[in-house]
Design brief:
28% of the residues lie in helices and 21% in strands. With 395 residues, the protein is an alpha+beta fold. It folds into two domains: 55-102 and 218-380, DD-peptidase/beta-lactamase superfamily (Beta-lactamase, 3-Layer(aba) Sandwich), CATH 3.40.710; 106-214, Beta-lactamase (3-Layer(aba) Sandwich), CATH 3.40.710.10. The strands form five sheets. Strands 5-4-3-16-15-14-13 form a seven-stranded antiparallel sheet, with helices on both faces. A three-stranded antiparallel sheet has the order 6-10-7. Helix 2 (41-57) runs antiparallel to helix 10 (372-380) and helix 3 (103-116) packs parallel to helix 5 (200-214).
Length: 395
Amino acid sequence: MLSFMRPYNIIQILLFILLLSSIGVSQDISSRQRVSVALSGEQIIELEEVFRREVKSQELIGAAAAVIIDGKVGLLLAEGLSDSAAGDPVDAHKTLFRWASISKPLTAVAGLQLNEEGALDLDSDVRQLVPEFPDKGVVISPRQLMGHLAGIVHYHNGPVIRSPSDPEIPHPYADVIGALETFKESPLVNTPGEDFAYSTHGYILLSAVIQRAGGQKFADQVNERIAMPLGMTTLQPDYQWIEIPGRATGYRRQDSEIVESRDADVSWKLGGGGFISSVADLGAFAAGLLQGSLLQTKTQELAWTSMMISKDQNPNQSQLTHYGLGFGVRTHSGRRVVSHSGAQEKTRTYMLLYPDQMSGVVVMTNSEWGNPRAIATALASMIPSPRLPASSAAP
């Protein structure tokens, strides 16, 4: 049955079978009985086949995924090349892909941790901590920044006014305070709280707030607050002036050809889209969220509850934004879904979580035309639902 598979894939599958055979997947249900599910060897093979088929159908150069069951990374998948010219294969532990906008949940979690510690009031004026951001005539709060309700301009929904950077500073945006120069003079696109306007620039401002509130460089806070506790060894800023081993080459389609992506500098938007890691570490972040390892239960529920907007401050016209504090939130087929996507030069990413089932999938690819959401959804549909043991099932 395995004759068509490459030898190293057979070894990976056997190792996962041994690993997962010792890990039961359990959760409480309303009857307070315990339920348990584990991936069988056949299910692992099926997941790998689905992943390979999706990667092939999308004609991706390279891709990787992590499947999460019972809040643990139960299966890592890798296919294709991280660098087609060099012939380097994608490695789930060593190949580093850009997170793109999944960096926003990282930033939100760091800010929410500061709130739990009493170091950051989510409803305070951000200018109390970051006076470098000009007075816009209204109060803008960290909560509004997290939920994209602050009216900060994104890329094309309003004029983006950049201030000249200091030529004497070699990498002026490595400091998130300096990165404010890329947009801070731009007018607001709406009154804060009255409309949802997704904004990477808003998360740049949020990262500056976190840096000041935590009294430590923003990137260092993310490392100490999130990466280190979860054992994430590859998560780091994707600084182009640093040689980062394992960094995937990106690809885009140009007319009828596939060419390498622009090696765009993303240091200016670190908090909104500037981190990089292996899929194993992205999976560890997702698993840590599901386990409740990063936030208190009440804080996490707040982050995973949709924000509301009130047109013209009229509560009778309130509506859901389907975005919480750093996370997309919705209900699908009766299940609560928490997610976030990412798209920029060199990458496409997707994080799909089912909190009530403690399961999920994360996907990363170095092909800009990729649809990681479709891959994540296909894999998630194959994660077995908890079943009652035969001895305790209701008659």
